[in-house]
Structures are given as C-alpha cells and as structure tokens.
Write a structure and sequence with these properties.
heterodimer, A: alpha+beta, 4-stranded mixed sheet, two-stranded antiparallel sheet, about 35% strand, globular, B: alpha+beta, two-stranded antiparallel ribbon, 3 helices, 6 strands, disordered N terminus
C-alpha cells in the first residue's frame, strides 16, 4: 500500500468544515492527536494503515451520515489510507429539532 | 485554502448508512450511545429520573454546585458498544401510578429507535431496572425558599 505523507492541519480543517461537526475530539483522555515538534494537532491520528479522525457531532442528524461527510472531505488528503471516523462525543447541550 | 462545503450525502448511497464502509470504519464511542439512550429514556412520560440512589444523590449535590449544572444525561445508563451493535442497561425511577411493564416497553422502544436512528448501530437489548418510585413529595422540600439567608 502506498502511504503518502498527510498534512494533519489540512485534515483537521477539512473535518471541522463539515456541517454538523461541532469540534474535533481528542479521545477519552485527550490523547488522540498528531504529535509534532512543539505542538499537537488534536483529533487527527495518522497510522500507516489508517487515518483516524475524531469528531464531536451535533445532536440530531444520523451519525453515519455525518461520518461519511467527514470521510468525503478528508479522503483527498488521506494519502491513500482508509479514513476511520470516530465519534467521540455528541453535543447534547444544544439539542436541535430533528 | 478554500473552506469546505459539504457534498450532498444521500441517505440511500452505498456507504451512507453503514458503519463499515470500504473506505474506512465509523466508530461511535460509548459516551455517545450513553447520552442518546439516557435522553431517550428521560423523555418518555412517566420516567422521573435516571440512576440508582447513590448516583442520584451525587447528581443532586453536583446539580447544586454552580459549575456543573444538571445531572448528566448519561446517569443511570451503561452501554456495551461493538462495531455494529450496542446493548444498553438502564436504571430508572418511575412516577407513581404508571404501569411499569407498559412504561418499560415504551422506554425500550424509544431508546432502540433513537439509538438506531442516530448511530446506525443495531440495539440488541435494553435491560431496564426500576430502582425506585417517585411519590411526588420526597424531594419537594429542597425546592422551597430557605427561611434564613
């Protein structure tokens, strides 16, 4: 499998730009991130076989639809890897009408 | 870099409904399913509160602190979430006068509907434990104005 380098900031921006994505998620303990010199990009994890994006979703729309939207947005940036979308949390504070 | 606009994803596309697509997996964390199940259970008329006695007492204390606010939507909810299925355990306090089997059935249905529709997971079981009955006068004292400041 050809794995090209991934720009984590671009992936994060693409995921955040999707409708119904409230924020990026950092995992249960805040550990999910791309670790770079001097800084981290939370919510994006780049492995050889997979690109993992963690999101906090808006309450209301079906989560697989939101996840697929994120996958579409991130796929061109994934360097040939499958894109795993993990819904870390859901924004229950702002319940929207379905 | 141009801001992304969301491409129209139709509900009947080949990947849209599933959690395991050929382009990658979608995982839903436990806390998401807990919140959805908890809110689905609470919204059924006849459910007074969620959680066992200890959890509710702790939640009541937390509710009075200025920073933490109302009890968590996941209180009284335990879930097991797999790749495509979920199982839910609920601790429920019912209002006095409801038919508990009917209410349990309604809660079970609402939880299954909400979780399946919102997450795409198949709910294999919803176990409901009715831990207490709310009689209408137990907790009312705390809503009164204090006589002294």
């Amino acid at each position: 499998m050809c794995s090209e380098p991934v720009d984590p900031d671009a992936v994060a921006a693409a995921a955040l730009g999707c409708a119904d994505v409230v924020a990026l998620g950092a995992g249960a303990f805040g550990e999910v991130a791309t670790y770079l010199p001097g800084r981290r990009v939370p919510g994006v994890r780049i492995a050889d076989g997979e690109l993992e994006v963690h999101i906090v979703a808006r309450w209301g729309p079906p989560l697989p639809t939101i996840a697929q939207r994120v996958r579409h947005a991130v796929e061109p940036l994934s360097g040939g890897r499958p894109v795993a979308v993990v819904v870390d949390d859901i924004d229950h504070i702002h319940l929207s009408q379905e | 870099m141009a801001q992304q606009t969301s491409p129209p994803v139709t509900a009947d596309g080949p990947d849209a409904g599933g959690l395991k697509t050929d382009k990658g997996r979608t995982s839903i964390s436990d806390s998401v399913v807990e919140k959805i199940a908890g809110i689905a259970a609470r919204e059924v008329a006849g459910v007074h509160e969620m959680g066992t006695g200890a959890a509710r007492a702790f939640g009541a204390i937390k509710g009075k602190l200025p920073t933490t606010g109302a009890s968590s939507p996941a209180q009284g909810v335990k879930v097991e979430v797999g790749e495509e299925q979920a199982a839910v355990d609920l601790d429920v306090v019912v209002e006095y006068g409801v038919s508990i089997p009917d209410l349990a059935g309604a809660v079970r249905n609402n939880v299954i509907q909400r979780v399946e529709r919102m997450t795409g997971l198949e709910v294999t079981e919803v176990n409901i434990n009715v831990g207490d009955v709310f009689l209408g006068d137990d907790d009312e004292a705390e809503a009164e104005e204090p006589r002294v400041q």
